[in-house]
Design a protein that fits this description.
104 residues; mainly alpha; two-stranded antiparallel ribbon; 3 helices; 2 strands
């Protein structure tokens, strides 16, 4: 989805903003479906509510009580991120979050 004449970092920022907007809308729709069973049937989709059990590990508690064991199984992996900084009208670099708040 390369938009003509839009620099890649600017397009990436726009895509991330759209993702945030869509995630907010998804959460709103999810709440509607959870709270209103009569809204769960659509023209093309049926929303089913299912509860499943999942297992979680409390790393903070494990580290507090068994740091030696945790250390044996803890390792670092490289993670590559693309971090966007905003450029204000006067050329100053600011966080992308700050730039969004300035734009509003």
């Amino acid at each position: 989805m390369n938009t003509p004449n839009v620099p890649v970092p600017d397009e990436l920022a726009a895509v991330r903003d759209e993702i945030r907007r869509l995630e907010t809308r998804e959460e709103e729709l999810r709440k509607l479906l959870l709270n209103n069973p009569d809204l769960r049937e659509g023209a093309s989709y049926l929303a089913e509510i299912k509860t499943v059990e999942t297992t979680r590990l409390d790393v903070k508690e494990l580290r507090a009580n068994h740091a030696d064991i945790l250390d044996q199984y803890t390792f670092q992996v490289p993670v590559t991120r693309v971090v966007l900084s905003g450029i204000t009208d006067d050329g100053e670099l600011v966080s992308a979050r700050k730039l969004r708040s300035i734009a509003q």
